[in-house]
Design goal:
125 residues, 4-stranded antiparallel beta sheet, globular
Length: 125
C-alpha cells in the first residue's frame, strides 16, 4: 500500500487505544501521533499561508475518506473503528484519496474492499 506523506513528513497510521482503533497523523520528528481523523471540524480553505491551507486540505480529505468505515466519533480521538480490518480499510481509503488529489473513493470500491477484493497492481478506482 502506498502511503501519502505530508510535506512535513507526517503520515497516517493506525493507533490502538482501549480496544479500539483510530487513524491519526504520525509525526516522525516527535515519534508520536498528532491529530486524529475526525477529532476536529475544519473549514476548507482555512489557514493563513499556503502551507496551512494544504494541511487543512489533508485533514479534511483524510476525515472524509475514513468516516464511512468508522462506528462514529468518540469524545476525544475522532473516528473509532471496532476492528483492525476496518481501520486498515479506512487507512487505505485515506491514502488513496490523498494520493489522488482528494477525489472520493467510489462506493462500489469501498464495498469491494470490505469484501476482500484486492485491485491489480497499478489499478485506480
Amino acid at each position: 500500500m502506498k502511503k501519502y506523506k505530508s510535506p512535513d513528513g507526517s503520515y497516517l497510521d493506525i493507533d490502538q487505544r482501549d480496544g479500539e482503533f483510530f487513524i491519526a497523523w504520525y509525526l516522525q520528528e516527535d515519534g508520536d501521533f498528532g491529530a486524529y481523523c475526525g477529532d476536529r471540524d475544519l473549514e476548507a480553505g482555512s489557514g493563513e499561508t499556503d502551507e496551512d491551507k494544504k494541511a487543512v486540505w489533508e485533514v479534511i480529505t483524510a476525515d472524509k475518506a475514513v468516516e464511512p468505515f468508522s462506528r462514529g466519533r468518540t469524545s476525544c480521538n475522532g473516528f473509532a473503528f471496532e476492528t483492525l480490518k476496518q481501520a486498515k480499510l479506512a487507512l487505505l481509503a485515506a491514502n488513496t484519496s490523498l494520493l489522488n488529489g482528494g477525489g472520493p473513493i467510489p462506493d462500489w470500491s469501498v464495498r469491494a474492499s470490505e469484501a476482500g477484493w484486492k485491485p491489480p497492481k497499478g489499478w485506480k478506482p
